[in-house]
Structure formats: structure tokens, C-alpha cells
Amino acid sequence: MARRGAYAKGVAKREEILEAALRVVADQGYRRASVREIADAAGLSPAGLLHYFGSKEELFLAILQARDEHDARDHAGTAFLDAFLAVVRHNITVPGLVTLYAQLAAEAGDPGHPARDFFMARTANLREIAREEIAAAQRDGRIRADLDPEWVMRALHALADGLQTAWMLDPDIDMAADIEQFLLVIRPS
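C-alpha cells predicted for TetR/AcrR family transcriptional regulator:
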């Protein structure tokens, strides 16, 4: 019984740390958010924080996973394309998380990088969710039926990721408006 209680407390503390880490990274950015600052925000020492995550890399991956879980929870029951646009709109309010995502996504191109499995699984999950929704949008006449749903998803994903990088360089870019324009382009005429 004591093990279950200790385990539950550990899970709760890990969630508390992730909530603090999401705030710190969103506010201060990936480069300026140190383990010490995240630990301070969670009421721990850096060693205490790393007890829950093992390394800085594991912590930052867990932050991205927590961000994705928040987005999924916030948009549960929402049509995929509407949820996708809502997340893109929300991203302008959390520039540090956008930077963290972009940095780790680029580094995950290295087959040996610890973030690679996360990004591979995330992309596969996104494709799975989007595939049926895009096919349904094609059947309903909202997306051209002659387009391969896999291509639509890849193009949309690549556009969103590329826009995030462009937006980090020029915050005047309206990422959501550009994605909405893409969706107009792939509508039947």
C-alpha cells in the first residue's frame, strides 16, 4: 500500500513540475529556461527535479508531451482542422514552447537524438487522427477529393512547422491566416 501512495505522490509531483516547467519555458524561452529556474518554480532543487526526469533532455521532452496533452484536452471533441488552427493561434502566446518544439524537432533529424522517437510517434499519431478527418472533409466537399489525404496532412504539418520557424524570425507573420489560406487553396473551386 505504501508503494502505491508513494507512486501516486511521485506522479502528482511530476505533473506539478511539468506545469511549472510549461510556464517557465513559455515565458522565458527554451534557451533561458534553465533546470535551476524550473526547479525553483516547482519548489525543488535542480537535483530534486532531475530525480523525476533523469536529464535535461528528458525534462524538455516531457514538457513537449505535456503541451500536446494540454492541447488535446483543450480541443477534445473539436474537428481536427478547427483544433489544428486553434493550436496554431494559441502558439503565439507561448513563444518559448514554439522555440523548444522547433529546436528539438530539428535535432530529432539525427537518428541518435533522444527526441527522435517522440517526434516519430507524434507525427504518426497526428497522421492517424487527421487521415479520417481529412477524408471526411473531402467527402463533405470542404477539401478537393482529388488530393491524397496523406499529402494534405504532410503539407499541412510541414506548413505549420515552417511557419513556426518563420514566425520566430518575424513575429508579425499570422501563422493561422496562412494556414487558413492553404485550406482555401485546397477547397474545391
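The longest helix spans residues 2-28.
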